[in-house]
UniProtKB/TrEMBL annotation:
Family annotation (Gene3D superfamilies): 3.30.70.20
Organism field: Veronia pacifica
Domain of life: Bacteria
Organism taxonomic ancestry: Bacteria, Pseudomonadati, Pseudomonadota, Gammaproteobacteria, Vibrionales
Keyword Metal-binding: yes
Segments forming domain 4Fe-4S ferredoxin-type: 1-29, 31-65
Keywords: 4Fe-4S, Electron transport, Iron, Iron-sulfur, Metal-binding, Repeat, Transport
Pfam families linked: Fer4_7
InterPro entries, sorted: 4Fe4S_Fe-S-bd, 4Fe4S_Fe_S_CS, YfhL-like
Example GO molecular function: 4 iron, 4 sulfur cluster binding
Protein name: Ferredoxin
Keyword presence, Iron: yes
């Protein structure tokens, strides 16, 4: 599934440079994750790195509107890397 940045975000900019898929950008008021680019870090890391670096508890959550299986995330990773 893709992850979602909630309004708890304090715009600290810790997550943006750490995303391996360049899925995080600054939106209108807070940072946002592009669900088409977020693989939940599948293919890159064991855990979502944005969640690991975010200093705010439960700021970045699973996006309830973009729930995907591990297989779909891996497929997305392959496409994003230009491997398919
Ligand atoms: S989970 Fe990984 S791929 Fe998704 S936005 Fe966070 S750092 Fe980027
Ligand atoms: S690390 Fe967390 S608080 Fe900082 S910009 Fe990213 S989502 Fe917002």
């Amino acid at each position: 599934m893709a992850l979602l940045i909630t309004e708890k975000c304090i715009n600290c900019d810790m997550c943006d440079p750490e995303c391996p898929n360049e899925a995080i950008t600054f939106g209108e008021e807070i940072y946002e994750i592009d669900p088409d680019k977020c693989t939940e870090c599948v293919g890159h890391y064991d855990k979502p790195t944005c969640q690991s670096v975010c200093p705010i508890t439960h700021c970045i959550i699973i996006d309830p509107d973009n729930v995907e299986s591990e297989d779909l995330l891996l497929e997305k990773f392959v496409k994003l890397q230009g491997l398919a």
